[in-house]
């Protein structure tokens, strides 16, 4: 499989005779937004966690920039240039917003501060709250922070796991605006969502996963009629 | 003086609690061993700052050993395995000390001799030095944690090791560093406490209990509050001992702790995420 | 045998009794108590003080010592009933230190730090052989108490309580009560051990309440094995006689002992007993569960259930009735409250408001999102709690994920009488396995009601005769599967379009 950024080749989780995830094959190219849609429990989260090295694949291969990667620890993909925004945001609660950003950066102080300034310009709502402890932030603010944190290492690809989960509708809107800004900067995005509405609006490509298998994929306009997706989610 | 000792000890304990998620039962014994180490150092003629440094160094090394033996291999086993391993390591430590130094209680020589009379109260040089050391330790640890990059990463890794790793942080290395630092703090505590109070090889258990009490009362591992509560405990004990008796003060302490557990397990300051180990 | 050897044997017996007592608390019930040494110490003090102050004959004092210790630990258990592992251990440690303080300072009663000399024992207890014999008796009594406790509560229930406390609750095991009983039983054994110890030594001092007693008990149980009284006896003998036969090491023996302990933890976590698997193999006997057919049609009635966590409402006014023969699919997007509702119905959580009524004779069996099985035991052992006659010796940890799900399903089915609740049973199953699951669910529903929480809507729609959709803690649809999957509100909930904004077309 050739792709210029991330490619997942026949990835499998579970016993080879009857895997519960896969075999899955997909790819993400430079600068494109790929949306993974599907009902809960379909395996979207597990796939992202597998790519990030948080849970193991039992088969298949992940390639980064056309070279195969052995994912033996979570920091591997992070160091190669993959950012991760986990399900439920999981910001570091006891650290301030600013500290959340600084804690994941590896490099000279001056550069760290420069990047933090960048984040504030990207997410102006956070600037006022930069010294607040992260657990005090609202859901939407935490989501911004989690995205900012993933951006600190200047990744080429950012994976977001259900960013709209648990957020009020307005916060969801702002979150997707933020994701659009990422796209504008040329960062590739792999997005898993249960909320199809927003995801369809910004994705370049859509992949539908159900029960651990890809059952459909294509351009977003193929799926904009809610009936189509509803049938895919709810019917046999 | 007691406050300084307890405070520093509790600081170290809370450190491993938060940073490594480990309830380090052997912490008290590390302090004890380091204290005896200080004795040995003193016997070789080291005085004052040198002796304290030696104790801290020894403590750090011991902390590392604790991490390697009890924490690293047992991370994946159920939580009590580490707990019991730490207790066992403590037993080893206690027995070694008994073998080396005998089981009788000892008051180890002060790190620094002499003292002054100020306004009718005797202030020992040892006590004064202890206070200085403790304050330095507090400030040092606080600065490390709050203002340095390493401290920041330590705190991040402590809050959410999985996500910290997913952002490239060397979580295991940081945890081991926490053990080392905690060990050094225990060493300092040992050196401080060794003069004022009779030390026996088994006193580690009592130290750890009080550190535990401080950590629980302060909300399970909020680092600085734990240290402050520990100082509070020391004050309580000192005042109680002067007013009634040492025993009564300690007894009251334990009863208060049991009451706290019964009615308000989250502690006085409250835990940030309500997360309990 | 020399007099000294007999003396050591007596001490070993005392230690063994106390260790077996701790095996009841920690090994069988999984409670990390650090007060075992205190039980022993209390027994020792009682054995000395009762004859001295109350003129109680030794024959009565020894058992009384056991009883008093049992009572004391029982009180501790009551006080610490709601605490989890670490806090429980801490609480017991605090009690231990407090008792030590008391003994050291209450000079008028306990003789303070110097202790008290015991009254001369009666003539029949003076000979070394007699004392060794009494130690043996105490040990035998401890072993009897151990096995009585084990059979009274039930081995399978204890195993479940130890490894899966939440599931244990769902299968009718009362954790707090079990722990209380365990602490009383363990306390009695410890007290007996302490009494024998005091008898052997002739004097009691706060020394016996020091942490080192607890450490010795800990060592014995670690070396011997958590659930093997016989191994505990062997270990006690090793630990007591060891120093004598390692005399050439002199004082360093203690260090060797400590290191051996550490090595045991790292390499032989289940003690010596693990070296003899055949002997220590657990034989679960089956308890018969009553399964009386329930004559009512409505098996469960619930009205206006509410449950919130920290200000967020998980279940917000759900009324649900379940009837015999129904397969009810419970669906809804993430965070809709399905798991919480299941916990409320199965009794694992209490509603903040509303009530639940079960028809008389109904017993609920359930499964969990991650199979809550006893990993180290066999399939047969896991099913023992239901009375199902399985001789299957396959270890659960060698089973695949899907085999585990089916095992858990069997356990729930066999345990239940009338109502089975399944939490995402299809997750992680391959298509052919889902077919088998569907069949099994239909079989269960022939005589009961089944509730299936699922994310895989097509699957559950194909087997259910009723579909209930939850969103944001409320029921938004309830009816025939064919209609529910086309219900606009349900579609909107799943696709994430805000319900009050209406579908965006």
β-strand percent of chain A reads: 15-25%
User: What average pLDDT do the residues of chain C reach?
Assistant: 85
Name the beta content range of chain C: 5-15%
Largest interface: B-C, 44 and 40 residues
| Major sheet summary line of chain A | 6 strands, mixed
What is the strand arrangement across the widest sheet of chain C? 7-8-9-5-10-11
Quaternary structure: heterotrimer
Characterize the overall form of chain C.
elongated
**Largest sheet: number of strands, sense, barrel closure of chain C:** 6 strands, mixed
- Low-confidence segments of chain C, given as residue ranges, are 498-505
Instruction: Give me the count of strands of chain A.
Output: 10
pLDDT below 50 for ≥5 consecutive residues: which ranges of chain A? none
- The total domain count of chain C is 2
CATH topology of chain A: Rossmann fold
Task: Kindly list the characteristics that best describe this protein.
heterotrimer, A: alpha/beta, Rossmann fold, six-stranded mixed sheet, four-stranded antiparallel sheet, globular, B: 277 residues, mainly alpha, two-stranded antiparallel sheet, 11 helices, 2 strands
Description:
The complex is a heterotrimer of chains A (236), B (277) and C (505). Chain A has a single domain (6-42, 56-234), classed as P-loop containing nucleotide triphosphate hydrolases (Rossmann fold, 3-Layer(aba) Sandwich). Helices cover 36% and strands 24% of the residues of chain A. Chain A has nine helices and ten strands. Chain A is globular and about 50 Å long. Chain B has one domain. A two-stranded antiparallel ribbon of chain B has the order 1-2. Residues 267-277 of chain B have low confidence and may be disordered. Chain C folds into two domains: 3-209, no CATH class; 298-501, P-loop containing nucleotide triphosphate hydrolases (Rossmann fold, 3-Layer(aba) Sandwich), CATH 3.40.50.300. Chain C is built from 20 helices and eleven strands. A six-stranded mixed beta sheet of chain C has the order 7-8-9-5-10-11, sandwiched between helices. In chain C, strands 4-3-6 form a three-stranded antiparallel beta sheet, with helices on one face. A two-stranded antiparallel ribbon of chain C has the order 1-2. In chain C, strand 3 and strand 4 form a beta hairpin. The chains are: A alpha/beta (236), B mainly alpha (277), C alpha/beta (505). The B-C interface holds B 23, 69, 73-74, 77, 79-81, 83-85, 87-89, 91-96, 98-99, 202, 205-206, 209, 212-213, 216, 245, 247-248, 250-251, 254-255, 257-258, 261-262, 265, 274, 276-277 and C 32, 79-80, 83-87, 89-91, 93-95, 97-98, 101-102, 104-105, 210-212, 215, 218-219, 222, 251-252, 254-255, 257-259, 261-262, 265-266, 269, 310.
């Amino acid at each position: 499989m050739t792709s210029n950024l991330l490619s997942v080749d026949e990835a499998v989780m579970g016993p080879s005779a009857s895997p519960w995830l896969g075999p899955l094959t997909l790819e993400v190219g430079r600068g494109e937004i790929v949306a993974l849609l599907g009902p809960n429990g379909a395996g979207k989260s597990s796939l992202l966690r597998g790519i990030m090295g948080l849970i193991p694949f039992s088969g298949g291969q992940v390639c980064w920039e056309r070279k195969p990667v052995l994912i033996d620890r979570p920091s591997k993909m992070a160091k190669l240039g993959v950012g991760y925004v986990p399900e439920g945001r999981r910001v570091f609660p006891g650290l301030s917003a600013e500290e959340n950003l600084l804690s994941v950066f590896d490099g000279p102080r001056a550069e760290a501060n420069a990047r933090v300034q960048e984040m504030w310009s990207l997410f102006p709502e956070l600037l006022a709250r930069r010294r607040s402890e992260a657990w005090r932030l609202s859901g939407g603010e935490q989501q911004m922070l989690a995205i900012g944190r993933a951006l600190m290492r200047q990744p080429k690809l950012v994976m977001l796991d259900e960013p709209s989960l648990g957020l009020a509708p307005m916060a969801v809107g702002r979150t997707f605006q933020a994701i659009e800004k990422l796209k504008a900067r040329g960062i590739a995005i792999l997005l898993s969502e249960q909320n199809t509405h927003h995801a369809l609006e910004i994705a370049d490509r859509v992949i539908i996963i159900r029960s651990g298998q890809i059952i459909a994929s294509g351009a977003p306009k193929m799926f904009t009629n809610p009936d189509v997706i509803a049938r895919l989610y709810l019917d046999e | 003086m007691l406050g300084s000792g307890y405070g520093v000890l509790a600081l170290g304990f809370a450190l491993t609690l938060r940073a490594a998620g480990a309830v380090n039962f052997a912490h008290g014994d590390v302090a004890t061993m380091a204290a005896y180490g200080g004795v040995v150092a003193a016997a070789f003629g080291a005085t004052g700052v040198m002796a304290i440094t030696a104790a801290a160094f020894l403590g750090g090394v011991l902390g590392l050993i604790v991490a390697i033996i009890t924490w690293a291999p047992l991370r994946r086993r159920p939580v009590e395995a580490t707990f019991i391993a730490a207790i066992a390591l403590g037993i080893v430590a206690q027995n070694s000390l008994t073998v080396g130094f005998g089981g009788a209680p000892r008051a180890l020589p002060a790190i620094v001799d002499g003292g002054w009379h100020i306004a009718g109260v005797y202030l020992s040089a040892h006590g004064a030095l202890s206070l200085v050391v403790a304050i330095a330790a507090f400030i040092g640890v606080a600065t490390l944690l709050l203002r340095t990059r390493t401290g920041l990463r330590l705190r991040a890794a402590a809050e959410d090791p999985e996500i910290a790793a997913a952002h490239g942080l060397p979580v295991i290395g940081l945890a081991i560093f926490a053990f080392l630092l905690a060990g050094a703090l225990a060493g300092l505590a040992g050196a401080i406490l060794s003069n004022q109070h009779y030390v026996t090889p088994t006193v580690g258990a009592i130290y750890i209990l009080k550190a535990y009490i401080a950590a629980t009362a302060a909300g399970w591992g909020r680092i600085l509050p734990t240290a402050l509560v520990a100082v509070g405990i020391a004050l309580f004990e000192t005042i109680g001992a002067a007013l009634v008796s040492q025993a009564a003060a300690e007894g009251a302490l334990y009863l208060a702790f049991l009451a706290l557990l019964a009615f308000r397990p989250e502690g006085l300051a409250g835990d940030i995420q309500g997360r309990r180990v | 045998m020399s007099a000294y050897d007999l003396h050591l044997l007596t001490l070993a017996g005392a230690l063994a009794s106390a260790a077996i007592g701790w095996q009841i608390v920690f090994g069988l019930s999984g409670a990390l108590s650090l007060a075992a040494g205190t039980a022993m110490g209390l027994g020792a003090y009682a054995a000395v003080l009762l004859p001295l102050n109350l003129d109680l004959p030794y024959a009565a004092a020894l058992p009384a010592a056991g009883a008093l210790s049992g009572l004391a630990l029982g009180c501790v258990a009551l006080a610490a009933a709601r605490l989890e592992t670490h806090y429980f251990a801490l609480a017991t440690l605090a009690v231990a230190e407090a008792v030590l303080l008391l003994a050291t300072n209450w000079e008028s009663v306990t003789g303070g730090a110097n202790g008290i000399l015991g009254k001369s024992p009666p003539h029949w207890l003076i000979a070394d052989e007699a004392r060794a014999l009494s130690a043996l008796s105490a040990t035998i009594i401890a072993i009897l108490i151990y096995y009585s406790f084990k059979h009274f509560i039930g081995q399978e229930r204890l195993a479940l309580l130890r490894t899966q406390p939440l599931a244990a609750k769902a299968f009718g095991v009362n954790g707090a009560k079990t722990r209380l009983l365990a602490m009383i039983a363990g306390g009695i054994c410890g007290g007996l051990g302490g009494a024998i110890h005091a008898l052997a030594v002739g004097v009691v001092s706060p020394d016996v309440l020091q942490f080192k007693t607890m450490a010795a008990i800990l060592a014995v149980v670690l070396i011997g094995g958590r659930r093997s009284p016989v191994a505990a006896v062997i270990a006690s003998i090793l630990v007591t006689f060891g120093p004598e036969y390692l005399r050439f090491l002199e004082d360093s023996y203690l260090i060797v002992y400590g290191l051996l302990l550490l090595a045991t933890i790292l390499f032989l976590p289940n003690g010596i007993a693990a070296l003899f698997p055949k002997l220590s193999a657990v034989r679960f006997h089956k308890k018969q569960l009553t399964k009386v057919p329930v004559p009512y049609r409505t098996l469960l009635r619930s009205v206006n259930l509410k449950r919130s966590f920290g200000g967020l409402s998980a279940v917000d006014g759900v009324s649900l009735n379940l009837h015999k023969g129904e397969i009810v699919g419970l669906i809804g997007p993430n965070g809709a409250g399905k798991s919480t509702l299941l916990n409320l119905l199965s009794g694992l959580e209490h509603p903040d408001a509303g009530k639940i009524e079960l028809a008389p004779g109904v017993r609920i069996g359930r499964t969990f999102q991650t199979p809550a099985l006893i990993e180290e035991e066999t399939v047969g052992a896991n099913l023992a709690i239901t009375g199902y006659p399985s001789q299957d010796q396959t270890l659960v940890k060698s089973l695949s994920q899907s085999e585990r799900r089916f095992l858990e399903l069997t356990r729930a089915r066999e345990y239940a009488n009338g109502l089975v609740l399944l939490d995402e049973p299809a997750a992680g199953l391959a298509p052919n396995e889902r077919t088998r699951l569907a069949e099994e669910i239909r079989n269960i529903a022939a005589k009961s009601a089944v509730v299936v929480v699922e994310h895989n809507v097509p699957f559950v729609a194909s087997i259910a005769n009723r579909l209930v959709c939850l969103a944001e803690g409320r029921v938004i649809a309830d009816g025939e599967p064919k209609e529910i999957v086309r219900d606009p509100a349900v579609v909107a909930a799943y696709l994430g379009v805000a319900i009050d904004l209406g579908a965006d077309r």
